[in-house]
């Protein structure tokens, strides 16, 4: 395969969209943590504390998703620089590393989404339980 200057450039829009999605998730979760923290201070409900712990893990995962995405874009930029300098063997390694970090970012994203769905399903099951009691 011939690695050309435009090849790593194709990843820039994809990574940018991922960052937008990751940032939106981070902002939403941060707001939720603040709201739950305020509610916990008022009620001292241990369930709220457990929810905050779950959200803390998810925020940690989002931070890692963003870090791996950042490393990926750095490697893609390095790849373009190495192609420009005609150092193709290192450019190929750099591009492979960039794609690897992008894959890691998406795998961590999948993990975070899985945790999110489990949390939502717990909320739904609580509501279903309340509906059955009435």
Question: How would you describe this protein?
Answer:
- The structure is a single chain.
- The chain has 134 residues and is mainly α.
- It is built from four helices and no strands.
- The chain has helices at residues 6-9, 11-43, 46-84, 88-133.
- The model has no long low-confidence stretch (mean pLDDT 87).
Number of helices: 4
Proportion of residues in helical segments? over 70%
Radius of gyration equals 21 Å
Overall structural class, as computed from helix and strand content, comes to mainly alpha
- Proportion in β-strands: under 5%
- Overall form: elongated
Please outline the major beta sheet: none
The helix/strand order is: HHHH
Report mean pLDDT, rounded to a whole number. Answer: 87
- Low-confidence segments, given as residue ranges, are none
Short description:
With 134 residues, the protein is mostly helical. It has 4 helices and no strands.
List keywords for this structure.
single chain; 134 residues; mainly alpha; 4 helices; 91% helix; elongated
Write the layout of secondary structure elements.
Blueprint lengths: L5 H4 L1 H33 L2 H39 L3 H46 L1
